Amino acid sequence: MSSLIGRNLLAGPEPDPAGDAGHGPGHPPRMGFFTDTSVCIGCKACEVACKEWNAIPEDGLELTGMSYDNTQGLGADTWRHVAFIEQSKPLGHAVTAADHSDIDVLALAAQGSGTPPAEAAVTPTTPAASAASAAPDAPPAPDAAAVPGPPAPDGRTELRWLMSSDVCKHCTHAACLDVCPTGALFRTEFGTVVVQEDVCNGCGYCVPACPYGVIDQRKDDGRVFKCTMCYDRLGAGQEPACAKACPTDSIQFGPLDELRERAAARVEQLHETGVADARLYGADPEDGVGGDGAFFLLLDDPEVYGLPPDPVVTTRDLPSMWRHAGVAAATLLGGLAAVFAANRMPGGGGR
């Protein structure tokens, strides 16, 4: 643990959150999640595994009417949330202008699949060269940096699904932890942020403090609940239930430094295959929360996924606020003292 003297512990880069929270030099490396949304299939296995392992109550099971999303967002009873986002936009170098109107798909289904892999249909992340060979009659693929255009004039509406499993970010600078008056929220030796439900008094200060809107109060008793990154499983040397259940490895768990390196390589790989929109979210230690313990690979702007584009820890300005309040109080007291002294002087109106 480095010296805490002269450092701002509420904002900025923080290499060892667990050490600064009081855990000794022998504590484990910081652990985290890397969620690669490019391979998420929306199966919701992570949601189910999270609820089963943590005995979380059901949360209504009400469809929004706008997608296949039945949980709508993170909350006290939803610690993992799979978003379904439908867009009229192709992904990467996917060829969308090929005309298949003359193909009897039912007859093809009855025949089964005997197509060699090299002649198979184009997938969303098929490189441009492969796409051209798979669909020779289609127009050439656009440049990798080009923005996909609107639907074709003939009325065809090509679309893509963006699916992403959202979770608590376990921020480096966690405002929820900073404002908790009872110590119910604490930093673990793995660098994660956990709620002790038996210590929480239901004050709710942490709810507006979270820049992501993650933490929430349970309606029946007022206490707050959120993802613990399966703290009990980590202590037993196991990975969190959601990562264990994910069939595509969209949710990856491990030491945070290793995950960041893996994520950077994955983004580079997607860029090489033509997916120019791929970018990381929450992986930068220089961002407004000091980097997230759970970060994401996104295929569009963060706002599309319901994430803030530039999150900032809400307690960042507390030191300057207290300084300004102190100056204002000192000025007020000085003015009152001056008025009192003037009234005590001969001829100043005092008795």
UniProtKB/TrEMBL annotation:
Residues 137-153 have a biased composition (Pro residues). It is found in: Cell envelope. InterPro entries: 4Fe4S_Fe-S-bd, 4Fe4S_Fe_S_CS, FDH_Electron_Transfer_Unit, Formate_DH_Fe-S_su. Residues 31-61, 159-190, 191-220 form the 4Fe-4S ferredoxin-type domain. Keywords: 4Fe-4S, Iron, Iron-sulfur, Metal-binding, Repeat. Residues 114-136 have a biased composition (Low complexity). Pfam families: Fer4_11, Fer4_4. Residues 1-29, 114-153 are annotated as: Disordered. This is 4Fe-4S dicluster domain-containing protein.
